[in-house]
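Recall the central idea of this unit: under ordinary conditions, the amino acid sequence of a chain determines the structure it adopts. In this exercise we apply that idea directly, starting from the sequence alone.
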Amino acid sequence: MSGEPRGKGLSLWLMPEGATRDRLAGLIERLAVRLGTTPFAPHLTLLPGVAGVEADVLDAARVLAAELEPLTVKPFGTDGHEAHFRCLFFRVIDSRALRDAHARAARSFGRQAEPSFDPHLSLVYGTLAPELKSELARELSAQNPAPFEVSGLHVWRTEGVAGEWRELAAFGFSGAAGSD
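Accordingly, the structure predicted from this sequence is:
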């Protein structure tokens, strides 16, 4: 584990709930056992690497959540990259609502929105041979989750390796329902 890439700071996540969460968590766990990787909670990272005093970050996240509206996450395909934290994932339609939520989150923490913001639901963290990644992507394409609504902002301490990450707080969105 000592050579495993480490996360930094705090991160803001959008997380599925209920049956979708359970299904994705089970899939991530099965893949981790099969591939010898570390499992993690299913999520879409809205803003990674947030720095600052934890209490201040939590206060800012609470205010941000009160400004956000529930939104729909629409997975549409399986892909993989060389980057450890994007090894294998479900792609997500980059909707205006997701892009706006990302921009608001960035502003809330004194940052610019990332032009490279690429919403996705990770399935495997690690390094896999390209052939294995392609085989898994084909295998998982039929397991694409249905669109699901997110209605809360989750703050995670993402310091260290993925197995050490912990949720600090979750704040429900206070905005009007039904944004997409």
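Confidence is low (pLDDT under 50) at residues 176-180.
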